[in-house]
């Protein structure tokens, strides 16, 4: 039987023996329960952050922890807004506490290299804060070798790939909510979970360069998507998955694996 990279599918003894070997990297996907238009499920960000982490884990020999299922509040300028039913979010203090606790828990297991693989735009700064608090606390407890990386997977898609994927012009990652990026990935990875017949081909959202609370619901397109997914395809999804994996693997190589190599060379 081929062993899963997903920790939640392992028995505890197998997990412990992996960690005891030392140098394990644990990837923690961070998603959300958020409306993604009429054509994609509420757990799109969970599925995609998990799939990205799974692909990365196969490439760099890492393990994937169970994901953060809920995320920070959807914002109108990056996720359509938290006023939309279906979208179910946590307060910032809760996300910070979860990120801190998960970092501390993996440290308790003996893991010293953790990566948060973010798939929901709004999570990022709160994951960062939780990790920062955990690192401070671990250092006070005398643990100085804990290293945590944070990333959002779309930041690893280079400009050449963006031009290839968006010949009609790129509107920015914030407006990609429910658009070509996520829909293409879902077509490639989870074709059975989406309904391409229901893609709403609307012009990209026109949003002010500021936030206003309470939100003005009319600023969000009726689809809930901030750009059209009409140009999405499974081929684009495959390219995005591959290029993002290569980019993320290079970053992990830089921060973790070269040190792994230096350590084993010096033995
Ligand atoms: Zn999303
Ligand atoms: Mn999202």
Query: In the CATH scheme, what's the topology name?
Result: Rossmann fold
CATH superfamily: Creatininase
Which class of secondary structure composition applies to the elements?
alpha/beta
Number of domains: 1
Poorly predicted segments: none
Gyration radius, rounded: 19 Å
Report the bound ligands by name, code or SMILES. Answer: zinc ion, manganese (II) ion
List keywords for this structure.
binds manganese (II) ion; two-stranded parallel sheet; 9% strand; Rossmann fold; alpha/beta; 267 residues; 43% helix; globular; 6 strands; binds zinc ion
Describe the structure.
This protein is of the alpha/beta class. It has one domain (7-259): Rossmann fold (3-Layer(aba) Sandwich), CATH 3.40.50. It is built from eight helices and six strands; from the N terminus they run H-E-H-E-E-H-E-H-E-H-E-H-H-H. The chain has a four-stranded parallel sheet with strand order 2-1-5-6, with helices on both faces. Helix 3 (76-79) links the parallel strand 3 and strand 4 (89-90). The two termini are 33 Å apart. The mean pLDDT is 95. The structure holds zinc ion (ZN) and manganese (II) ion. The site of zinc ion has 5 residues, from helix 2.
Task: Summarize the structure in short.
With 267 residues, the protein is of the alpha/beta class. Helices cover 43% and strands 9% of the residues.
How is this fold's topology laid out?
Layout: H1 12-20, E1 25-30, H2 44-60, E2 63-64, E3 71-72, H3 76-79, E4 89-90, H4 92-109, E5 113-118, H5 124-140, E6 147-152, H6 159-165, H7 180-189, H8 234-265
Helix pairs in contact: 2-7, 2-8, 4-5, 7-8
This protein binds zinc ion and manganese (II) ion.
